[in-house]
Design brief:
The chain is α/β, with parallel strands linked by helices. It is 43% helix and 19% strand. It is built from eleven helices and twelve strands. The strands form two sheets. It has a six-stranded parallel beta sheet, sandwiched between helices. Strands 7-6-8-9-10-12 form a six-stranded mixed beta sheet, sandwiched between helices. The longest helix is centred in the N-terminal third of the chain and has 18 residues. The protein starts with a helix and ends in a 6-residue tail after the last helix. The structure holds alpha-L-arabinofuranose (AHR). The site of alpha-L-arabinofuranose has 13 residues, from helix 2 and strand 9.
């Protein structure tokens, strides 16, 4: 009887042990901390994994340098992590290191920014926003706004300046493409100046200062993120103009700072791009560990906010 009970206990223990999830080590290569958005994204991923004791997250900050990301991925491979979470600073240049991860049998899950098309077979999936759609939403919002305010008769030129994100990055490429798709419906809209502000407030401000010095005929600013728009708002004010009135401003992200600017009447609209990717990333990695097949693309669901909805939404914003 005693022997029977002992073997029953051992069998029970073995069943429980085999059902418990294996401990996984996850490497996360982040691009840096250029914006409020990025900080919220990093914290979201760190919190999600750090709160689950069956995971250890190794975090690496590339400080906006591609070579640091390549080094980080190589060190994850050397440490034989179970999965790599990866945000690509720019689209190109990661083929060889992703090939190395694939050869080592380590799946790569992209978060937020993808790599170029020809390298996408080397990663398992991508989760994040549809940046092309964000650009389209910005253009559509602008068209509706100008029409509603009687500011665009379809013939007089609408001069738009553009603050682009980091050159070669997926959001900069796609947000431009999406916006330009909508521009085709408005032959009188023209991008008169376009330059990178690297997704940062300081560069957004500096580039806008240069635009304003060179050009007195700007009706609209399209910024690829809020951070650059917030910097540009400073430049517009310092030039003695009223942001949101003298120059209409639409940007992307919908961070808290953008909501505050909308409530002040200085920013006209922000297209939402959620950085809260941690819970989704955790779920995907858990599914992977459980042997499930991940979808090739995991989208985030996002909205559009302007001065009519900003005050009501501000108190519940999480980033
Ligand atoms: O990749 C997402 C973009 O990167 C966000 O729009 C921007 O704020 C960030 O720096």
């Amino acid at each position: 009887m005693r022997r029977f009970l002992l073997s029953l206990a051992i069998a029970l223990f073995a069943t429980i042990a085999s059902a418990a999830p294996k401990h996984w080590v996850v490497g996360f290569s982040q691009i840096g901390s250029e914006s409020e958005w990025r900080t919220a994204d990093t914290i979201s991923v760190q919190n999600a994994f750090n709160e689950d004791p069956t995971f250890t997250l190794i975090y690496s900050d590339a400080q906006q340098k591609q070579e640091n990301q390549i080094k980080a991925v190589r060190s994850f491979i050397a440490r034989k992590v179970n999965v790599i979470l990866f945000t690509a600073l720019v689209e190109t240049g990661y083929g060889p290191v992703l090939e190395e991860a694939k050869k080592a049998g380590i799946p790569v899950v992209m978060i937020d920014r993808d790599v170029q098309k020809s390298d996408r077979h080397l990663r398992l999936t991508i989760m994040g926003s549809d940046f092309v759609k964000e650009g389209e939403k910005a253009g559509t919002w602008l068209g509706d706004y100008l029409k509603a305010k009687g500011l665009d008769d379809g013939t007089k030129p609408i001069n738009i300046v553009e603050l682009q994100g980091t050159t070669g990055s997926a959001p900069a490429i796609d947000r431009k493409t999406g916006f330009e798709t909508i521009m085709k419906k408005h032959p009188n809209w023209k991008i008169t100046r376009s330059q990178t502000g690297n997704f940062t407030s300081s560069e957004g401000k500096a580039v806008m200062e240069a635009f304003l010095k060179a050009d007195k005929n700007i009706q609209v600013l399209y910024a690829h993120n809020d951070q650059m728009a917030l910097g540009a708002i400073q430049a517009i004010k310092e030039a003695g103009l009223q942001p949101g009135k003298d120059i209409i401003i639409v940007s992307v992200d919908a961070v808290k700072g953008a909501f505050e600017a909308m409530v002040r009447g200085e920013l006209n609209a922000s297209i939402e791009c959620s950085p809260l990717l941690g819970p989704q990333a955790l779920q995907a990695v858990k599914d992977l560990r459980a042997g499930k097949k991940l979808p090739a693309r995991i989208w985030t669901i996002e909205g559009v906010f302007d001065q009519t909805s900003a005050a009501q939404a501000l108190p519940t914003r999480q980033y």
